[in-house]
Design a protein that fits this description.
With 198 residues, the protein is an alpha/beta fold. It is built from seven helices and seven strands, in the order H-H-E-H-E-H-H-E-H-E-E-E-H-E. A hairpin with a 2-residue loop joins strand 5 and strand 6.
């Protein structure tokens, strides 16, 4: 049914006029506002130490110590904080080659991450390695569009979770990218990618 422009403008104008007649109580409105601070990291790539002092644009930046200090500072300043990671926790420094992700997951647990999802580099040593590192996680891995049936990760991830922060309830779900053509098939095995839109 085509939209009648005149009727649309008339109805919209009536709704705006009616809403302007409702008295606003600033104190009541301010009291009902609840603030949530969302902190998010991604593509950390095993950056346990700051970038080297080599003249690059990121020299001296990063590392888990600096991240932990910043997170703690924000948590002291803000009442409700949700801390998430969007994946690519692993890969990028010799720490990953030697320890296979254990220190990254332990550091995230110590910092009190609420949840994380997986990026393509989190498959770099295969699903069995990722599953092994999860024993160090005090937070869930959320991934709603990968079917891990028949793999080492079956039953070790969740599609979503609801977090309670004060009086707020926040639903969070993780979405992963298409692995085919990006990750070697032997590293993700029987994982089935599902279109996140459907």
């Amino acid at each position: 049914m085509p939209i009648n422009r005149r009727k649309f403008i008339q109805d919209t104008g009536t709704a705006l006029l009616a809403s302007s007649l409702i008295p606003l109580n600033g104190e009541a409105a301010a009291a009902s506002v609840q603030k949530l601070t969302i902190l998010h990291t991604n593509d950390v790539h095993t950056r346990l130490e700051p970038f080297p002092m080599d003249g690059s644009r990121n020299q001296g930046l990063g590392g888990v110590a600096a991240r932990s200090v910043l997170i703690s500072k924000i948590r002291q300043e803000e009442e409700q904080v949700l801390l998430l990671d969007a994946g690519d926790i692993f890969q990028g420094t010799p720490y990953f080659n030697i320890y296979k992700g254990e220190p990254e997951i332990k550091a995230m647990s110590a910092m009190g991450y609420d949840a994380a999802t997986m990026g393509n580099h989190d498959f770099d040593l295969g699903m069995e390695n990722f599953a092994t590192q999860l024993k160090y996680a005090s937070f869930p891995i959320l991934i709603s569009n990968y079917d891990f049936s028949g793999t080492e990760l079956e039953g070790k991830t969740k599609p979503w979770q609801i977090f309670k922060k004060g009086n707020l309830q926040i639903g969070v779900f993780g979405i992963g990218i298409e692995l085919q053509g990006l990750v070697a098939e032997n590293l993700y095995g029987k994982t089935v990618y599902q279109d996140p839109i459907q």
